Amino acid sequence: MKKAKFFGLLIITVALLALAASCGGAATGEKDALDEIMEAGKLVVSTDPNYAPQSFLNDQGELDGFDVDVAKEVAKRLGVEVEFVTPEWDLITSGNWSKRWDVSIGSMTITPDRKEALYFTHPYYYTPAQFAVHSDNTSIQSLEDLAGKKIGVCSECTYEKYLNKTLQIEGEEVTFPDWEAGEVRTYGTDADAIQDLALGDGVRLDAILSAQPTIYEAIQSGCEGGCPMRMVGDPVYYEPLAFALDKSRTPSDKLLAKLNEIVDAMHEDGTLTQLSIKWYGIDLTTKVGQ
């Protein structure tokens, strides 16, 4: 009887331990990231201050743009204040944020390698990747003419991976060029690459690859009056863009579910469409062809 009772208690103990493990943070008393945000009354958002019209510093020195407006609306729907931080892009994509910010709302493409360190929400919009050259250039008229050229891109972004032919995008098929760049020159932000191209045709760069809305905005109002650039060819791929959360911050299940709920609601009630038209002049909230 004693032996049977012992084994019975052992089985119950093992079952309870397994249940505790399956419950994760709830069993250990850890608060979900959403609970911490609600208690703090503040959502800390990382974004890029040099990425107009997605996010940039306006004439008053305040962050402005599509992503900034989206972040403000998300915080409003959560019922908390919003605070912005502007870390380097590679710090955001690498994860391990140590709770320095809660979420990235910065037009991040969903890729398999980033999913190793980050959780992603449902896409909130889609953007085309576009090549551009200096407006004085007359020799580059097609994408094939970019073979052997110096092309500027942001470091650790999808554009660099595209030119290196390693890019993978969740749910998308990427077709790579059958030509090779002479040099892929990387920059901290797209704005830095644009500034180097604006110095003159071939002075530092022959071309750049960036988001089409970013290039359009730079041509219209960048470089203190309009960057001297023109677009070349059609967009080479389209990117599903999402909010990102740090996987090392656990548990975050409730936060991810809540953000997905907000993204879906902002699609359904037209908020994202309105903000896209406000900042881009077109609706980028659905895939091309859908």
Task: Give the class from helix and strand content and strand pairing.
Answer: alpha/beta
CATH architecture of the largest domain: 3-Layer(aba) Sandwich
Q: What form results from the Cα inertia axes?
A: globular
- List segments where confidence is low: pLDDT < 50 over at least 5 consecutive residues: 1-27
How many domains make up the coordinates? 2
Order of helix and strand elements from N to C terminus? HHHEEEEHEHEEEEHEHEHEHH
Strand content: 15-25%
The rounded Rg comes to 23 Å
Briefly note the CATH topology name of the largest domain. Answer: D-Maltodextrin-Binding Protein, domain 2
Strand element count: 12
Q: Which class of the largest domain in CATH terms? A: Alpha Beta
Give your account of this protein's structure.
- The chain has 290 residues and is of the alpha/beta class.
- Strand 2 (50-51) and strand 3 (55-57) form a beta hairpin.
- The longest helix is centred in the first third of the chain and has 22 residues, at 2-23.
- Helix 7 (190-198) packs across helix 8.
- The strands form two sheets. Strands 1, 5, 6, 7, 8, 9, 10, 11 and 12 form a nine-stranded mixed β-sheet that branches. Strands 2-3-4 form a three-stranded antiparallel β-sheet.
- The protein contains ten helices and twelve strands.
- It has helices at residues 2-23, 25-28, 33-40, 66-78, 89-93, 158-163, 190-198, 212-225, 253-268, 271-280; strands at residues 42-46, 50-51, 55-57, 63-64, 81-85, 103-109, 118-120, 125-134, 150-154, 183-187, 207-211, 229-246.
- It has two domains: 29-126 and 240-280, 3-Layer(aba) Sandwich (D-Maltodextrin-Binding Protein, domain 2), CATH 3.40.190; 128-239, D-Maltodextrin-Binding Protein, domain 2 (3-Layer(aba) Sandwich).
